[in-house]
Amino acid sequence: MTALLDTDGPRTAVGAPPPAVRRRGTLRERFPGLALPALVWYAVFMIGPVVAMFVIAFLSWPGMLTTPTPAGLDNFARVLTDETFWTATANSAVQIVVGLPVMIALAFLLAFYAVQKPRGHRVLRYLLFIPALISAPATAMVFYAMLNPDGLVNGFLRPLGLEGNEWLADPATALGAIIAVELWSGIGYSAVLIASRLDGVEGEIVQAARLDGAGDWRLAWRVYWPIAQDFIGVVAMLQFLSMLFNSAQTVLLLTQGGPENATTTLAYLIYRKAFVETDLGYSQAVGVVLFVIGLAGMWAIRRLLRATH
Amino acid sequence: MAQRTALPLRDRIGSITSGTLAWIYAALLVVPFYYFIVSAFKTNEEIFESPLALPTTFDLTNVTTAIRQADLGLAVANSVLTTVAALVLTLLLALPAAFALARSTGRAGKVVEGVFALGFLIPSFAALFPTFLLAAALGLFHTRTFVVFLLPATALPLSIVILTSFMRTIPRELEEAASMDGASPLQVLRQVYLPICVPGIATVLLLNFLSFWNAYLYPLILIGPDTAQRTIQVALPTLKVDAGTDYGVLMAGTLFTLLPVYLVYTLLQRQMQRALLSGAVKG
């Protein structure tokens, strides 16, 4: 705001119109014209489709080749009375309420450990980046191979005298397996992010806590956590959105929502209704619901983990 | 170190717990990796019987089968083409925009910046179907071209935020001196700003290389199954068959998606780590 006044000041003070070149320069500075192509591009390819999502949610559009007609709130009524929607909501809720705290807590402990610079911390940091590099299909395919009945996981369990399982085909374990895959790929990146913040914690604070007789456990949760809390909140939001939306890829690649909707999350439901069942109004109505859940969840995380100092 | 080991056991519980967890997780990162690499050179029987044994022979049959079965050579070429074209387009759009925003002093600049910042909140994935309609409307459905257009849009908010913060560090006098010499804005951008922004550009390129190369749902829906057009990420899962997947072949195919990323990570480890860190911090 002050910058705005500063630039306006001299111009009005001088009074006499400055040379044309000078004025064009000022105008250019005040209106960032070179940003226009990017802005237009962004509006067409990103904002446009999201706006369209909100429109389609209020249309009756039962197939790609049919003509859409206005439907008012019918889609939402249909969504809210559909059992599958509630199953998907429950699955997404489990995924986030269980998965997210576990991911953040473990990532924080890992970061705390890495920041102490123990022996091998360089190797550890190198490894922690790995999941962030691997695409969803590659991760899913490796886990598909490990979780199949003859795969690595059962290969480990059988010699221990434990029953193997068809992890992805058993309704009792399929959602757990999906969450496990997401934890596997999310913990490492969250940990390096949190570690980058913990690295900035001043040594003196740590020393003082040590002198007060704080053990490692208290040092982690009472000193490091409060200092990094707002940043951990940002990481939590990032992972929350990624779990909420990107789970569709993992589900699509590993279980296609099955067995019997056991792994159908809200994001996957959007995909299935749009591209498998072509119930487009329904799909986009769920999209709107997910959009609202996303905003609400981020607000909740912000409330929960906002800066305490 | 000496001081830390002197602490009583009770006070080291935190480190012992977090250390144990850290190395268990590290093992969980390494073991799948090892398993997938050795499996790429084994048959199903060998994989099932002794999952962690080294392959008995260094046999490339799985690799060649994977290439033939899913047209992986073509898919890699498509991925390279799409990624490189999208990267170039991203820079062409983001660099002038960041330049304009960094120099802008007016309210319009702030608004534009705000619009891009909001982009972090847009769940573009939920709008996959309208995106698909857009592709159809432009007559670019089932083409790589549309994905080349779309991917930069997904990358613009972060790229612009990173580049703008770099360009803000450049003193105005430098630019004014160049303007005096009669340089146009684009010349100023090219001759003054670009050389100084090289680290920022590298960060943007590395981050977007990862997300473009690894993109899955967009190419899957928008490019579709046509082997002449599809990318490696879309081709790979076709090696998984409901009845009787050849896991050796599947793992050999996975090698193809990871190789370029690993090559870049190994060569540019520090830059890549810095990019990944700044990528989220700014978000």
UniProtKB/TrEMBL annotation, chain A:
Keyword Cell membrane appears in the UniProt entry: yes
Domain ABC transmembrane type-1: 85-301
Protein's UniProt keywords contain Protein transport: no
Transmembrane segments: 34-61, 93-114, 126-147, 167-187, 223-245, 281-301
Gene Ontology biological process terms from the UniProt entry: transmembrane transport
Compartments in which it is found: Cell membrane
One annotated Gene Ontology cellular component of this protein: plasma membrane
Keywords per UniProt: Cell membrane, Membrane, Transmembrane, Transmembrane helix, Transport
SUPFAM superfamilies given in the database record: MetI-like (SSF161098)
Family matches, as PROSITE patterns: ABC_TM1
InterPro entries in the cross-refs: MetI-like, MetI-like_sf, UgpAE/MalFG_permease
Membrane topology: Multi-pass membrane protein
Main localisation: membrane
Family: Belongs to the binding-protein-dependent transport system permease family.
Protein name: Carbohydrate ABC transporter membrane protein 1, CUT1 family (TC 3.A.1.1.-)
Organism expressing this protein natively: Promicromonospora thailandica
From TrEMBL, chain B:
Record's bilayer topology term: Multi-pass membrane protein
Record-level GO BP terms: transmembrane transport
ABC transmembrane type-1 domain sequence ranges: 76-268
Keywords: Cell membrane, Membrane, Transmembrane, Transmembrane helix, Transport
Subcellular location: Cell membrane
Matches recorded under Pfam families: BPD_transp_1
CC annotations in GO: plasma membrane
CDD domains: TM_PBP2 (cd06261)
Domain of life: Bacteria
PANTHER family: ABC TRANSPORTER PERMEASE PROTEIN MG189-RELATED, ABC TRANSPORTER PERMEASE PROTEIN MG189-RELATED-RELATED
Protein name: Carbohydrate ABC transporter membrane protein 2, CUT1 family (TC 3.A.1.1.-)
Organism: Promicromonospora thailandica
